[in-house]
From TrEMBL:
Pfam families: TusA. Belongs to the sulfur carrier protein TusA family. Residues 5-29 form the UPF0033 domain. InterPro entries: DsrEFH-like, Se_metab_YedF, TusA-like, TusA-like_sf. PROSITE patterns: UPF0033. It comes from the Bacteria. This is UPF0033 domain-containing protein.
Amino acid sequence: MDKIVDARGLVCPQPVIKTREAMKDMTEGTLTILVDNEITVQNVMKLGNYSGFNPTSQKLSEAEYQVVFYMKKGAVTLQHNALEEECVPDSRKKGLVAVISSDQMGTGSEELGRILMKGFVYAMTQLEELPETILLYNGGARLSTMGSASLEDLKTLEAQGVEILTCGTCLNYYGLSEKLCVGTVTNMYEITEKMAGARLVIRP
């Protein structure tokens, strides 16, 4: 049996509590939780991970997100009552902008460069302080599109509140306009504005 929990407009810990209530009498199926901000996504994702349901998240619009728990019959649900009282703080570092202009890192072997770039994007997910914004342009635009090896890591970052912006002109140039899978399309003015206003810019 599938269920939907509408937790939009609720403040922590209410979305987590409503999700736990919906989980109680579910033995299999999908549980979809609708929320309206990235930090609530982070809190609900944490509950799903503790419970062993391998949750996924998706940004539906500017102020609407969904988290999906995949519940299989016979799966063990881990108890973690303290989660009802936990609200994960915003772990983004204000003014930290990551700028990625290629799908490869460094010069030399293209294959090695792509491996290094995948490692770089993954490493960002492990930082104690995440970037506030990631800007993707030129070859870096490929990272946020269908088939990218870094797609799941970028989705993880977005679910934790990181703004993912991909150059629209670059997507058009590479024929990827219909294949964007994470974040939103941006333009050169906004890219310049984000970089100019950053307190710290990091580049692979």
